[in-house]
Design goal:
The chain is mainly alpha-helical. The protein has six helices and four strands. The strands form two sheets. The protein has a two-stranded parallel sheet. A two-stranded antiparallel ribbon has the order 3-4.
């Protein structure tokens, strides 16, 4: 087996293991909705007052990396509208890509830029904003000041 094949299999096994660990930690009354490439359609199927945990925004952005800028803008607008229509609490996990290495590829830069700009838009709409690092949660709404 070639190295890339074996590392791909290991990556798939690690992803499955991580997914199973996360499922086991969830409360038994939680429902998981897999959305593949259409988050907005999946969100429309979630009952109105249900609390929604989006884990994570990076996957949604990654699924749209091959979209043109115009198509991305439209998708982003539809995503925001769908989230705003939801009547329950929405918790969104967002990867903090700005703390890492500057991407050396165009697609990596596009991911960072799209995720970062969408995160800023969502943060402006949010009633609360938290940063969780090393098992500690910091309320950014109370601690921080917006940077123009």
């Amino acid at each position: 087996m070639a190295n890339s094949e074996s590392s791909n299999i290991l990556s798939q096994q690690n992803a499955s293991l991580l997914l199973n660990i996360r499922r086991q930690r969830r409360a038994s009354h939680w429902t998981t909705v897999e959305c593949a490439n259409d988050f907005c359609a999946a969100l429309a199927r979630v009952p109105g007052p249900a609390t929604l945990l989006v884990d994570s925004l990076g996957g949604i952005v990654a699924n749209q990396l091959e979209s043109s800028n115009e198509a991305w803008d439209e998708h982003q607008e539809q995503l925001i509208k769908a989230l705003m229509r939801h009547q329950g609490i929405v918790v969104i996990v967002i990867e903090e890509t700005g703390w890492g290495v500057v991407p050396s590829t165009a697609i990596g830069g596009l991911f960072r830029d799209r995720l970062g700009s969408l995160a800023q838009v969502l943060e402006a709409l949010a009633s609360q904003s938290w940063l969780v690092v090393q098992g500690r949660a910091l309320n950014l709404s109370q601690l921080g000041k917006p940077v123009p």
